[in-house]
Amino acid sequence: MSYIRNRFNTPATEPVVKYTSSLPFDKRLYRHDIAGSIAHTRMLAKQGIIPQQDADTIIKNLTGIASEIEQGKFEFKAELEDIHMAIEARLFELTGEVAGKLHTARSRNDQVALDMRLFAKEAISETLAQLRHLQQSLVELAEGNKDVVMPGYTHLQPAQPVLLAHHLLAYFEMFQRDAERFGDALKRTDVMPLGSGALAGVAYDIDRDFIARELGFSQISQNSMDAVSDRDFVIEYLAAASICMMHLSRLAEEIIIWSSSEFDFIELDDAYATGSSIMPQKKNSDVAELARGRVGRIYGNLIALLTTMKALPLSYNRDLQEDKEGLFDSVDTLLSSLEVFSGMISSLKIKGGNMERAASRDYILATDLADYLVSRGEIFRSAHGITARLVSYAAEKGKALNQLSLSEYKRFSPLFNENTLTISKSSSVAARNITGGTAPQQVKKAIDRAKKMIGESNKGVS
């Protein structure tokens, strides 16, 4: 639209046009931009600011433009700065001078803020849905393998026996926190900024509440300068996405490790693995590896926008154009990662026998021996030392704990008796029968709780 440069005598050079254009990436906001324009037009007519006949013409042609874009018939012209001007230019072609009434009581500043909030609200809803799908996959895998015992690790060293289901449900909890973060961010994203104008509000008798209702916003912005320059809601999405991708990366790392021949705890479905260009035997966990790598992109997008915002004076500055590509990339990256992980988890083959055998090695029941001594009256710190010396002795003899005789146990404490020899990984797991523990009863409760949470979420209950 030439009127943007009415102030100037010299046209912008081609490099400047290309440098300042956001159309190549913000054209994905077309639905949100058109929805906002339609709601704004209805409000203008309702308030008597423009004639209803003109509003009907504008709305009809805006709807037609949306169809053109969706059918691939819309020409995105390079000389137009952004999706807002591209749509308005086409509206002028279809409608004539009546199109000029659309921008009454509106600035591109509050228009783009509106579009970004509409996009972010939609992205949050899609993210929450994908998180629930992944949580569902984790719960189903846990429930289908609820009796499998595996080593629990600290420092990537075998520590204590746990149920595989307990391990998987740890990720359910991580993703639940992610869902809560996104849900909380939605409250602050769900604010309608239109009516703020360029920065000071508008000098027309507009009905902002009407527009908010039309577009499904629960509240309207309270300060026009803040409304056009605020991108906290984008930063919040990027921050929540960064934490969520970190959780995915942790899960990816375990999938990579567990599927290695050294661990051999799981087998990836062929659909979620790739081969080698030179080694025919390879089955690589590339999906998990890519997710582990792509977390850096979302971290980078968060830091980039924080850096952009850190020294911006009020109100709008063109720097804010840099909010879009990082958000779009992060939304696409996170949604695709969540989707592919849901399928990958659902199709995992669990090698329970290998997990069980691994849980029988490396003196993993040492803590249970110490706890047994405490149950017989020993002080825990003393019991810890006794058991540590016992493990050292067994290691020197090349024996597992269950290969030691009772007489050998009694060399380290007279409190050991025949019951010592009955301590097993099953009894170890069963003993952790407290809320949040790995005992079968507690894990069953956790699965039931998780299923209830998913069911309530699917019904729209937060």
Biggest sheet character: 2 strands, antiparallel
Amino- and carboxy-terminal Cα gap: 45 Å
- Secondary structure category: mainly alpha
Poorly predicted runs of 5 or more residues: none
The Rg value, from CA coordinates, equals 30 Å
Second CATH tier, the architecture of the largest domain: Up-down Bundle
Label the overall shape: elongated
Which band does the percent of strand residues land in? Answer: under 5%
* Share of helical residues: 55-70%
Taken in chain order, the helices and strands follow as HHHHHHEEHEHEHHEHHEHHHHHH
Total helices: the number is 18
CATH top-level class of the largest domain = Mainly Alpha
Q: Can you walk through the features of this model?
A:
The protein has 462 residues and is mainly alpha-helical. The protein folds into three domains: 97 residues, Fumarase C, Chain B, domain 1 (Orthogonal Bundle); 226 residues, Fumarase/aspartase (Central domain) (Fumarase C, Chain A, domain 2, Up-down Bundle), CATH 1.20.200; 93 residues, Fumarase/aspartase (C-terminal domain) (Ribonucleotide Reductase Protein R1, domain 1, Orthogonal Bundle), CATH 1.10.40.30. It is 60% helix and 5% strand. The strands form three sheets. Strands 1-2 form a two-stranded antiparallel sheet. Helix 8 links the parallel strand 3 and strand 4. Helix 10 runs parallel beside helix 12. The chain is elongated and about 100 Å long. The two termini are 45 Å apart.
